[in-house]
Amino acid sequence: MSENTRPTELKLYPNRRYAVLTGDVVGSSKLDPMSRRALPDALKKASAAARSVFKRTIPLEADIFRGDSWQVVVADSHLGLRVALFFRAYLRGHWLDAGLDTRIAIGIGAISFLPKQRVSQGDGPAFRASGELLESMPKARRLRLSIEDRERLAGVDAVVALVDALMNRWTQRQALAVVGALKGQKQEEIAKSWAPPVKQQVIARHLQQANWEVIASEGLSYVENMLREL
Prior knowledge:
Elements lengths: L17 E8 L7 H21 L9 E3 L3 E6 L5 H16 L6 E8 L15 H11 L7 E4 L3 H18 L4 H11 L4 H7 L6 H10 L2 H18 L1
Parallel strand pairs: 4-5
Antiparallel strand pairs: 1-3, 1-4, 2-3
């Protein structure tokens, strides 16, 4: 098949729910010029890291636009929150000292079409829900999730709000420890991967202070099980 005849859209499944994550960098206009210029590179690195961990569920690179905004599609919708946590933890872990953090709105639903080169030009209920949710997000919130089932939405939103509140308190090293945990690494592996390496007990303390066990076993499990049922 020649370059001119290759499909420009990703193959989609009409009865499948996807997760669309739409984000923007918090307070980007107030960043110093050097940090502002580094935004696209930081977002690209976060996207590449997420795709290396969630290989089968993130089909395309995140689309970065307006310099401080981004959008990514997750094929397995129940993993949308987990990917959002990774993306945000990665940014906070590597660039929190530069003041980088991101708001993320997760829309769950169908996708009508998805261009391979520009994710942000896709369309469908999941895209519209994600974009509208980000626009209406209260200043105190940096993470929200929208589903069509209104009866279950309140419970999901409450859990995501609690996870968000805990994430807002993470230090840079706590966020880095969570990145390792989301990669599926054991505490010893995370400890050895740091530069310079640290003891396993240090990682254990960071994860405990980040309330990671509660977030993973209660928050993520609840939301993912709920989305699987849908």
